[in-house]
Amino acid sequence: MADRVTIALVGCGNIARAHWRGIRYHAPRIRVTAAVDANVARAEAMAERTGAKAYASLADALAEGDFDAVDLMLPHDLHEQAAVQCFAAGKHVVLEKPMAQDLPSCERILKAAEQAGTVFMVAEQAQYWPDVRKARELIDGGEIGTVVTARACFYDPLDVDPAAPQPWRFQLARAGGGIAIDGGAHWIRPLRMMLGEIDAAIAATGGHIAGMEGESWAQALFRFQSGVVASFNALLHASPVGNTEDFRITGSQGELVIEHGREGRLLLFNAANPTGKTIMHTFPGKVDSYGTELHDFSQAVLEGTALAASPAFSLGELRTALAMYRSVESGRWEKVWS
Ligand SMILES: NC(=O)c1ccc[n+]([C@@H]2O[C@H](COP(=O)([O-])OP(=O)(O)OC[C@H]3O[C@@H](n4cnc5c(N)ncnc54)[C@H](O)[C@@H]3O)[C@@H](O)[C@H]2O)c1
After folding, report:
1. Tens of pLDDT, residues 160-188
2. Which of 89, 123, 157 is the endpoint of a domain?
3. Residue 38 alpha carbon to ligand 1 centre in Å
4. What does the pLDDT read at residue 1?
């Protein structure tokens, strides 16, 4: 049994920096041996940081590189082609969310993974957020009674230079949608972790960011299989906004609040704690979650352990976003899983 899994970082942009930090500090069984980016300067910069070899294309890296696994961090329209190529080469694959832009594409990826028989993970770091896991424990422990309703609020600062050319995530053909299919996933997964599976969604969306073809805001109600209805408010903001909590889960006997930001806390309100008890601080767990996620992947490769969330489970966020988009067209509740 190998001691470490060798990996190629493919796509050395924004999220690659968080993955590299995670590997460095929290995934000791991963060694980066290749850094791949069509932008050669980015590949070289990542290669220098990690001690890996730089490649300008995935094909070159697969032909010449020395690695067992790939970490795919590419624009959404490239996910299927890159994943299928890597499975065909017998690699283990960790693929940034969403698995792909639509379900037929996801099915082809899942089939390629099955044929390869290697480990396949869809990266969703929220699966490893300690505050969300703890909130689920408190709900299961009856601390807030029976869940009545909930609210998720995803306010994401716009991180784009307005003078730069249109980024890929602003292009519908490349991103597959806007905030719901993209960053919204990180708030939909925790809702599923805390409240169970989403049955149906009804939504309204719109755009207020110049040059962005997909929706820059989305308001939705999610009805869970339990019957609980939660609201989901997502907004990409280019101007200052006020404070809001990330999650609020209201029960018959209390409430859980997950505050926003680096100073955020998980708070429990109930009869024993009427003014709110700090259960935990949400950082550094949230920042470290990229490393925890990649460590989970390395353990699955090296030890055959089960991933915290399967690729099939990861379809839930994409399916929810797609149900929201159908609902915008139909004006009705749309089922998530059928
Ligand atoms: N989990 C999270 O919190 C999170 C945050 C941001 C992005 N993401 C996901 O990560 C993925 C990448 O997003 P990003 O924000 O890092 O994008 P990005 O644009 O910052 O980086 C993508 C990189 O891929 C490179 N690239 C493009 N085409 C290529 C090709 N054919 N071959 C090799 N390299 C190529 C680009 O040059 C760029 O450096 C997406 O799936 C996105 O949804 C996840």
Report:
1. 876 789 999 999 999 999 999 999 999 99
2. 123
3. 11
4. 65
First-to-last CA distance in the chain?
Answer: 41
Residue nearest to atom 34 of ligand 1 (CA): 37
Q: What's the 225 CA to ligand 1 centre distance in angstroms?
A: 33
Q: Which domain holds residue 101?
A: 5-123
Domain total for the chain?
Answer: 2
Please indicate, yes or no, whether residues 64 and 171 belong to a single structural domain of this protein. Answer: no
The binding-site residues of ligand 1, defined as CB within 6 angstroms of any ligand atom, are: 11-16, 36-39, 42, 57-58, 73-76, 78, 96-97, 125, 168, 182, 186
- Same domain, yes or no: 95 and 142: no
Number of the ligand 1 atom closest to the C-alpha atom of 168: 19
Q: Give the pairing of strands 265-270 and 273-281.
A: antiparallel
Q: For residue 159, what pLDDT is reported?
A: 83
> What pLDDT is attached to residue 161?
77
What phi and psi values does residue 253 have, to the nearest 5 degrees?
-130, 15
